[in-house]
Each structure stands twice: as C-alpha cells, then as structure tokens.
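Collaboration report, partner site 2.

Our partner group contributed sequences for two proteins of shared interest, and the home lab folded both. The records are reproduced in the order in which they were received, starting with the first partner submission.
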Amino acid sequence: MTARLGKRTTRDIERRYFDEFSKAYSLPTGTIEYADKPDVVIRGDRTTGIELTRLYLQEGSSLASEQRQKPLREGVVSDAHKLHLYAGGRKFELTIGFDPDRPITPPRRKALPKELSAFAATISTHPSGPVDPELFQSMPEISTLYLNSKEYDDAKWRLGQVYAVDLISQTELERIIREKESKAADYSACDDYWLLIVVDWMDNAQEQEISVGHLKIASNVFQKIIVYKPGFEDILVVWP
C-alpha cells in the first residue's frame, strides 16, 4: 500500500517530480505509463523503465537525520509552549533554533519541553531580542533563542532553524544507487533502466548543491543515472 504524505501519496509526489523533469530533460520517444517497480515506463522502439527516488542528506534510520530531528524539534517546541500556558505564563513569542550537531535523543525528548518551559518563565519579562546562550547552556540541544516579550493573544513559539547547504555527498549517492541496484530483480522487464534521483530544495532534509561538475558512479543495472533538483532545473548526469 502506498504511504500517505498529508493528502498526497508518495506516487502523487513522484509523478509531479517526473512531470517537471520531463520538461527539463529529453526523454526517449514513446508512451509514458506510471507504474511501480519501476515507477515510470516509456514504451517506444525500446521500453525504458525509470525508477524514482529521493536523496536525503542522511539516512532516515540515523537519529541525527533531519527526517528524524525535525518532528522531534517541533514536538519539543509545541509541548513546551503548552506547559508554559498551562502554568499561566505570559503570552509572549519565542523562536527556538536547535543545534544539528546535538540531536534530540528519546530521553531528552521527554525532559526538554519541561526545561524549556521553566527557562522561558525566567526570561518572560526580559527585553525583546536574542537571549544570551550562556543562560540556557543546560539545554545543549538548543543553539539560539529569540524573545519577543510583547504579549499577544495568539502568541506562538516556533522553530527558527538555520540550515547550511552542503555539496552533494558522493558516498550517500553511491549508497542509494547500490540500494536500488539490489532491488532491480523486482522490476518489470524493460530494454533499458534509468535511475532518477530527486533532490527537493524545499525539504531541508534533502537540500544540497548538485552542481559539482564531473561525477561518475558506474552501474551494471542502470543505463543512465540522473540527479535532478526541481525548481532550479539543475541536472547532474552521474552515469554514463
């Protein structure tokens, strides 16, 4: 069963990626069919199967990955604000930035909202502006705090995460290629196979610079491997 991502399925998202890619890159002539294993089949003089996947900065199994940390951060901020309001705290706004090098662990996910809520109460009447990091060094997961001490009925606490854009990781790119190669036996029969790897700049778990010039990773399965960044129309042909 296809996993749901909000109101759109994974297949819906992949189809949108492919539709955008087809306008930016020359495809074999033929009839396009959306399928599964591979995700797209083009039937013409030759049948070309195209498998789609996304390239994340880190594997989702890693606790430090953005895929894992983002919902943990959002949960900490939301829970801390609820605790603050439940305790009768002032309705001010707080913007919280987390240190990506100090990931939130499961035990800290439980403790951090209480610590953040308690600390916020001590600065609630401070002047608006950045909060001195020395004051919250007991919460190493948090790197920045910005206080707006003016009260609002609908005051919110929010994430204020800053991200650096790294160059594409050849190691991670090769890992995902080999992973897809290992599943090629399940693909329907085609004359050629392509692997289309998407880097979505709107997702901070994926955003990376792919314009790195010459990069080749050979494959015995895929006749063509392409990395594509929608929106910017950046295309990196990895193989051949």
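Second partner submission, folded after the first:
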Amino acid sequence: MRDQPRMTSTPDLPNHRPDDLPRRPDVARAEVVVPAPGAGPGNWSGAPCAVHADGWWVIAYRVRRPVLDGRGVGVVVARSRDGVTFETVATAARDEFGAESLERPALVRLEDGWRLYVSCATPNSKHWWVESLTAPTLADLADGQRQIVFPGDDTVGVKDPVIVRDGDRWRAWLCCHPLTDAGHEDRMTTRYLTSDDGLAWTDQGEVLAGRPGRWDARGARVTALVAEEPLTLTYDGRPDAQSNWYETTGLAVEHDGALQPDEGWRAHSPHSDGALRYAALATAPNGTRRWYFEAARPDGAHDLFTAPA
C-alpha cells in the first residue's frame, strides 16, 4: 500500500485533476431524496454515505432536529432502484447507543453482510466516538453486532468517517476535533487510517487541515473518495467558528505526494446559510455516478439531495 499523501497549502490545481472528474454537486439540478424533519434552521436530513450494491443504490443518513428538540435523533438506512425514490430498511436511534446525538454514518458491503459505522456524541461533552454494527442483511443492521471502532480520547473527539474497502484493504478518513482548547472544539482535521478487517485500525497521520485566511481556515473534513489516480477527495470546510454546521464543499487532489486544495472546484447552496456538505459519491456497475449531499433550502432547513455526477 502506497503512503497516503500529506496536505499542503498550495492552491489551484486545475492541471492535476483526474480526467473523469464528476460535475460539482448542484442544488439547481438536484432532487430531494429526504426532506428535513421540520421547517426552519436546525432541522436537517443529510450527512449521507452512499454505495451501489446488489442492484440497489443504498444510503445511510442522519436525521437531526434543533438542539432543544433532540439534535441527531437517528440514523436511517434506505435503498432505491432508481437512486431517487428510497424505501427505509433499518433505523438506529441515538438512545440505543447512549449517545446525546448521532452524526454522519458510513456503510460498507461485506462478503456476507453489511457494516454500519455510527458517529456518537458523548452526553454532556464535546467528545465523539464511532461504533460499528455488523449484520447479515441491511434490515438487520439496527440489531447488528456492535463494537467501538474509533473511541477518541480526552484530547480528541472523532466522527464522520469515510471508509473504503477493497478486499482485505480497508482505508478510512476520520474527522478529528481537538478537545484541549475549551470553546474551540469545532475545529476539525482529517486523519488517514488503515485496517485489515475494518475494526482494528492503524493511524497513518493527519492528511487534511484548514488553511489560515482561506475559506477552509477553521477545518477540513473529507467526505468522499472521488478518484484513485491521482487521489482525489471532496471535503467540507468553513472559514470560522460562526460557520459551524454551514460548511461548503471543496476538492483536494494529490500532487507530488501531497493533498492540495483545488480552488477552482467549489460547491455551495444558493439558499439560506449556504451549506452544501457531506457530499457522498456512489457508482453503479455501468459507470453511472450519483452525488448524495446535505444542502440548505430557503427556510434554513437542510434537505438530503441527489444529483447525477
């Protein structure tokens, strides 16, 4: 396995993009997959992951209500033949994990089943951990075998993993929030990890971070693997603490052994707080690709959208 590239601050890489770079996720040409659970700010359906397997488009996503109404109340697994109209097959509630809130899940197809990774907030804390559920079918995931996979610790909260499996090769990009500076726990970086089984992981170091004075100054969170050669990833970023929850989507491309941001490729919502975040990319066997992403609508709520890539 080749070394994972490190992040640098060199911008503008139009000449190093992959040849088949997908179109940006765009609210104007997107369809709503799951509407927000209510009207107004703080009501969000989104933070999706997406895969295509066994003839189905399969997504897992988080449902969130405003802070005083419960925050991230559950994770839903759903499937679709056409990639737009989904049926729910499993739901995991935050209380089942003893969590104060749930955030972005990750979903992986196994030879003999499925594994769902759930991001969990520790009650009365800024700490997060990630737990896995493994089951023979999608419908069984809520009652699957559980294991804490990324525990975090007193110095860092971990959440929102992007996990890619290729046979016995597992890779993860994990969002990390430092907890050592009170009042600044919203800052985020991404670390890269590897595994032989998707349960025990080896940390390979930080690969993506915010850049002072830029649109992603407050942090950078990988959201999707877009291409392998050159390694290309979408990521969420924001300029300041006040923009927490309202991230927009950028692109990082490997060049000379480092991940570098591409300032010519950005995506945001034209509505309300401008958020367009948690972009996930799924590919069907015939090469058809779809984005799934969370984006702001005019009333400040966030819907879960899909658009051809």
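Feedback sent to the partner group on the second submission included the following. Residues 6-14 have pLDDT under 50 and may be disordered. Residues 6 and 116 are 28 Å apart (CA to CA).
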